[in-house]
Amino acid sequence: MDDRPKATSPAKRILQTVLSLAIVVGIFVFAFPQFADYGDVWTEITAMTVVEMLTLLAVAIWNLVTYWFVLTAVMPGLTYPQAAVSNQASTAVANTLPGGGAIAVGVTYAMYRSWGFGKSEFALAAVVSGVWNNFAKLGMPVLALALLALEGEITAARVIAAVAGIGVLIGFIALWSLFLFKESLARRIGSFVGRVATRVRALVGKPPVSDWGESGVGFRARALVLLRTRWLRLTLATLVSHTSLWIVLLITLRHVGVGNDVLSWIEVLAVFAFIRLISALPITPGGVGVVELGMTVGLQVAADFTGVSEQLFEAKIAAAVLVFRAITFLLPVPLGAASYLIWRANSSWRTSTPSNHEEGDGAGGDAQRGSADAIERQVGTDINP
User: Fold this and answer.
1) What is the DSSP string of 202-263?
2) CB under 8 Å, gap of 24 or more: what pairs does 272-278 form?
């Protein structure tokens, strides 16, 4: 069976590009100026010192490095240089192309395959890292709301949000735990996903998939082997990665002059955590425009302007958000382009193509192909959290 991913039609790609571009232009031309004047924002950005800019660049680079720890934790045998190349290249694709998250998965898989990793290994690493990233994304808003409550900033809306967040997080953890510890549930989940996939494939005239129930059992067994020895390493790496991104935002706010009296670190954490949940929706590549607007508005609403110029600090907050996004969203693009060239040129890392056994044949291979092709839908577009 030809398991190569089908290319998106040119018309669909053009439509995605036009819609994404329209949203981005609409946000930055019409919506964003309602919350900060670009002239004032530029004044605040240019007021930063060279030392402050270099400090931000250093913490931004550290933030990129932290996700390499996650990748090596879920993929035994992957080296840090390989993790760096694959992560930066896929992040650049995800940040620049409409539907880039799905394309980034394909880029990452091509690299892993050239280094000797099979589809089952790739699918396992992508799903497990995606699950841990989702744990962190769901947990951070709950933590932020709990910290706000301890500070006495309790409102009915925050209590409801906290309870809802805790419920979703507990449900997600419980489902994942049951999948790991109950083979029968893993089989039922695999069979259910297989039936759904068969119906979707029938709509486009493709044959049904084989039994994914047994493949679910096999995936569970491999996940247990991986997590028995690497769950702590993976958990710590995931926490460091997500926390590092928040620290970049916090330092940026402090460097433009937004002190703790205007925005506490807990308030920054709360806004950061909730906007990250929203940015998981693939509205624009890398959430460009959506994240900047949402984060700016959220931070301005959370800020305490007592005793300070509201207009001035609104500009400072907007400046911090734009600088934060520039060094975390744009920086990976040239690094990703360089990483892709390194991968193409460096033949010393390449190994023979994984064997048919590694790739999977028959029913298992069919399910693994489906798993690899569906990873983007399963774990979202969080290539670099």
Assistant:
1) HHTTPPPP--HHHHHHHHHHHHHHHHHHHHHHHHHHHHHHHHHHHHHHHHHHHHTT--TTTS
2) 272/140, 272/245, 272/246, 273/137, 273/140, 273/141, 273/143, 273/144, 273/246, 274/141, 274/144, 274/298, 276/137, 276/140, 276/385, 277/137, 277/138, 277/141
Q: Angle at the Cα of 146 (from 142 to 148), degrees rounded to 5? A: 120
Structure tokens at 19: 């819609």
Other Cβ atoms closer than 10 A to 299: 28
What is the rounded CA–CA span in Å between residue 228 and residue 41?
49
Q: What is the tens place of the pLDDT at every residue in 67-102? A: 999 999 999 999 999 999 999 999 988 888 766 677
Q: Which of 111, 120, 75, 60 lies closest to 90, judged by CA? A: 111
Separation of alpha carbons 171 and 136, rounded Å:
14
- Residue 380 has what pLDDT? 41
- What one-character DSSP code corresponds to residue 28? I
Tokens of 321: 């958000």
Mean pLDDT over each residue of the chain, to the nearest integer? 82
What DSSP character marks residue 354? P
pTM: 0.81
**In the chain, where the domains are located:** 30-379
Considering only CA atoms, which of 101, 10, 111 is closest in space to residue 377? Answer: 101
User: Which helix (H) or strand (E) segment is 95 a member of?
Assistant: helix 80-96
Gyration radius from the chain CA atoms: 22
279-296 per-position pLDDT tens digit: 777 677 778 888 999 999
3-state SS assignment for residue 306:
coil
180 neighbors 128 (Cβ within 8 angstroms): no
pLDDT in tens, 200-220: 777 767 787 777 777 778 888
Q: 324 or 139: which carries more pLDDT confidence? A: 324
d(CA 191, CA 210): 9
